[in-house]
Amino acid sequence: MPTGGAAIMREGPNLLKLARKEQCLALGTRLRSKYKITYQFYRVFPNGEVQYLHPKDGVYPEKANPGREGVGLNMRSIGKNVSPIEVKFTGKQSYDL
Fold first, then answer.
1. Distance between CA atoms of 90 and 85, rounded to whole angstroms?
2. Please, are residues 28 and 54 in contact by the beta-carbon 8 Å criterion?
3. DSSP assignment, residue 79?
4. Digit-coded pLDDT (tens) for 79-91
């Protein structure tokens, strides 16, 4: 465990409270690579509201989801990228083209 110690996992959902998101990600990486376990991180506020931290939309980043929008996605190969010198004084960024 990231904080030192041991735990016994039951079948079904298990709850582990950790102080930092980095600890959750470290433990999650170990669980997914070694045991193929799916996990979720969420924050529970005092009023009972739940905010999902990872995965935000319920699907892990390495999985394809038809509803997920690509962020900064360019449908071209790296060889088809615009030369930065052609964009230098146009007021646009190379990633906008």
1. 10
2. yes
3. G
4. 888 888 888 888 8
The pTM assigned to this predicted structure is: 0.47
96 CB burial (10 A radius; 0-12, 13-18, 19+): exposed
- Tens of pLDDT along 21-80? 788 888 888 887 787 777 778 888 899 888 888 776 666 666 556 666 777 777 778 888
Question: Any residues with CB less than 8 A from the CB of 3 and at least 6 apart, and which?
Answer: 18, 23
DSSP 4-57: S----PPSS------S-HHHHHHHHHHIIIII-----EEEE-TTS-EEEEESTT
Unique residue bearing structure tokens 């060889």: 79
Two structure tokens written together for 89: 């004084």
